[in-house]
C-alpha cells in the first residue's frame, strides 16, 4: 500500500523534482482505483470497453505528467479532477475521430473537482511519434537510459547506481557524450530538424 | 560548427547553473552569435526528443504496473538468444582471424605515421566568453587554428592553476606544445589533464598523452598499458581508436 498522500502543491512539486520522487507521485495517482474506475466507467458507457478505459487512464496520466513538467498545470485545480477531465477529453477526441458522437457522462465530477471541458492536451501525431522514435533509436541503449534519467532530474549518483555504472563521474561523462552525439546527429540531418520543428 | 565548444554554456543556461549576469550575457550572445543560436536550438530540439523517450518509459511503467503479478513467458526469447549467440560467435571468429592475420599482410607503420593518423588539432570557435580566462582560451584556440603556437602559449599562461578553466587551458597548451615541437611540455600538459576529473577533457588528455608518446618515439610499457586500458574500456571516447591503434602496433 502507498502510505504517501499528496496535496496539489506537493504533487506538482514532486513531478517537477523528478527522479524517484516523481515516480512515487505517479504511482500514488495510478493506485487510485476509484479514479481509474470512474474513467473506465465513462469509457464503457460511451462505446468503449475495459481495455479502452485502462488505456485512457494511462494516457491521461502521461498527459498530466507532461503538462506538469511543462508548467501547463501548476496545481491550481484538484489533480484528480484534472486527470479525469483529460481522460474524458482524450476519449471524446478518439470517438470524434471515429465519428461516434453523442457521448454520455454518467458520472459528473464532484463539486470539489471542477470539470475541465478543454484541458490543454497536445496530441502526439503518428508522424511525430515516428520521427521522435527514429531519433531516439539513434542513441544506444545506455545513452538513451542515461539521457532520459538525466531529463527527469535524476542525480548523477542515482543514474550511476541504477544503471550500474562505475561511478558518478562516469555517468556525467556518458551523459555529456551521448547528448552531444544526439545534437550532432540533428546537425547532420537538417531535413529531420525541419520536420521536427514542423511537428512540435 | 563544433557543438562541443558551446555545449557546456548552453547546458548550464538551461539547467539554471549560470549566474544572472552570465545568463543575460548568454542571452545577448544568442542574438549576435549565429553558431551559438544554432547550437542552442539543437539543444532544445534534443530535449523534445528525450521528452518523448520519457513518455514512452512512463507508458511502459504504467503497463507493467497494470500487469503486475501476471506471469510472463520467456520461451521464445531463449530461442532467439541462442540464434544470436551462434551469429555472434561466427562474427567473433572472423574478427579474431582478421586480428591475428592482419600483421602478416600489412607493413607496420612508424610511430610518427601513427601519430599523424590519429592526431587532431582542436578547432577554433566563435564563442565569446566575457571573463578573462574564457577570452584567453578563445584567443588561444584561434591562435592554434592559425598555427601561431607561441601566441597560444602566451594566452594560456594567463590562466592560473586555481582557475576553473585551468584544465581546459592545459589541454590546449598540450596542443600548442606539439605545434612548437616541445614534446616533454606537451606530455606534461596532457598528463595533467588526464589526471583531472574534467568530463570534457580527461579522456582527450589520456589519448593525446599517448599520441605524444608516439610522436616523441618514447613508446614504453606504461604507454602500452594505458592504451590497453582505454581499448578495454567500452565507455571511453577513444576506445575504438585505441583498439585500432593496438592492432596496428602488434
**Structural class label of chain A:** mainly alpha
- Count of separate DSSP helical elements of chain A: 10
The description of the largest β-sheet of chain B is: none
Q: Element order, helices and strands of chain B?
A: HHHHHHHHHHHH
Per the principal axes of the C-alpha atoms, what is the gross shape of chain A? globular
Protein described:
The complex is a heterodimer of chains A (200) and B (250). With 200 residues, chain A is mostly helical. Chain A has two domains: 99 residues, Rna Polymerase Sigma Factor, Chain: A; 83 residues. Chain A is built from ten helices and no strands. In chain A, helix 6 crosses helix 10. The longest helix of chain A has 21 residues. Chain A is globular. The N and C termini of chain A lie far apart (39 Å). With 250 residues, chain B is mainly α. Chain B contains twelve helices and no strands. The chains are: A mainly alpha (200), B mainly alpha (250). The interface between A and B is large, with 41 and 36 residues.
Produce a short descriptive summary:
The complex is a heterodimer of chains A (200) and B (250). By secondary structure, chain A is an all-alpha fold. In chain A, 67% of the residues lie in helices and 0% in strands.
Helix and strand arrangement:
The complex is a heterodimer of chains A (200) and B (250).
Chain A (H helix, E strand, L loop, with lengths): L7 H10 L1 H12 L2 H12 L5 H20 L9 H19 L28 H12 L3 H11 L4 H7 L5 H21 L1 H10 L1
Helix pairs in contact in A: 1-2, 3-4, 3-5, 4-5, 6-10, 7-9, 8-9
Chain B lengths: L3 H11 L5 H13 L1 H33 L8 H31 L5 H8 L13 H14 L3 H8 L9 H14 L3 H12 L7 H14 L5 H12 L6 H11 L1
Helix pairs in contact in B: 1-3, 2-3, 5-10, 6-7, 6-8, 7-8, 8-9, 9-10, 10-11, 11-12
